[in-house]
């Protein structure tokens, strides 16, 4: 894998158009499928509704978003209703996020948010376009990247350093169990996973996760039994091998 961009064979004059050409060409040349390990992914025809690339071997689809600076807490995305409708679809694309440096014309960061981390709770509607706009009433969406656990951000390139492919594939497999659950069920799981990760240590206790009771209650105001729900999610994560049960009230994140 080479991080530098090739000089585009196009006559685009704007920086954004050139950057789009560079980044898309780079993905076609160097990116691989983190699901099956296939060495190449292919481009969809221009203006495909949601996805930009697909894996010819396993049919995983990918949406690419790239920018110069790091991505913040929210990432702009496509039409809100379409995005929500696609959440449960088998071909909902994985999100590929790239940061690049125009000076060196190279990739700085590249990570993928697998599609099984996309739930309704992390999709936010933008303000509809005004009545005078060309697409009056059109409502875009934002992906709440800060609601995604770190285990849902699988880094291929980090800080200009290429991670070993076997580590990327292993990271992908760790959370693949989430695909067997509906988007509605995954919402609670992902928020509990994020709470556990935010503790910043491998070994943790049930009481430490209970400390997020108010936070989770604010996220799910209709649930009046937050502590039992936390225990349920931890049991599920234990049964799927994401965490280990150490002793009564004590757990450990798997490395």
UniProtKB/TrEMBL annotation:
Record-linked Pfam families: DpnI, DpnI_C
Residue span(s) of domain Dam-replacing protein HTH: 184-252
CDD domains reported for this sequence: DpnI-like
Protein name per UniProt: Dam-replacing family protein
């Amino acid at each position: 894998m080479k991080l530098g961009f090739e000089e585009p064979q196009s006559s685009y004059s704007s920086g954004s158009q050139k950057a789009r050409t560079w980044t898309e060409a780079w993905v076609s040349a160097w990116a691989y499928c983190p699901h099956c390990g296939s060495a190449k992914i292919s481009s969809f025809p221009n203006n495909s509704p949601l996805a930009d690339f697909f894996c010819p071997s396993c049919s995983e689809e990918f949406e690419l978003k790239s920018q110069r600076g790091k991505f913040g807490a929210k990432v702009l995305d496509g039409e809100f209703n379409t995005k929500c409708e696609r959440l449960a679809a088998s071909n909902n694309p994985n999100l590929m996020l790239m940061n690049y440096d125009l000076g060196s014309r190279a990739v700085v960061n590249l990570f993928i948010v697998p599609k099984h981390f996309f739930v309704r709770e992390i999709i936010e509607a933008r303000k509809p376009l005004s009545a005078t706009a060309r697409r009056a009433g059109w409502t875009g969406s934002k992906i709440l990247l800060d609601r995604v656990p770190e285990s849902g951000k699988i880094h291929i390139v980090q800080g200009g350093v290429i991670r070993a492919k076997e580590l990327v594939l292993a990271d992908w497999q760790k959370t693949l169990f989430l695909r067997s659950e509906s988007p509605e069920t995954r919402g609670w799981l992902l928020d509990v996973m994020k709470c556990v990760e935010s503790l910043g240590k491998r070994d943790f206790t049930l009481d430490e996760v209970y400390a997020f009771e108010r936070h989770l209650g604010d996220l799910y105001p209709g649930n009046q039994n937050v502590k039992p729900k936390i225990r349920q999610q931890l049991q599920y994560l234990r049964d799927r091998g994401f965490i280990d049960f150490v002793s009564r009230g004590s757990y450990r994140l798997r490395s």
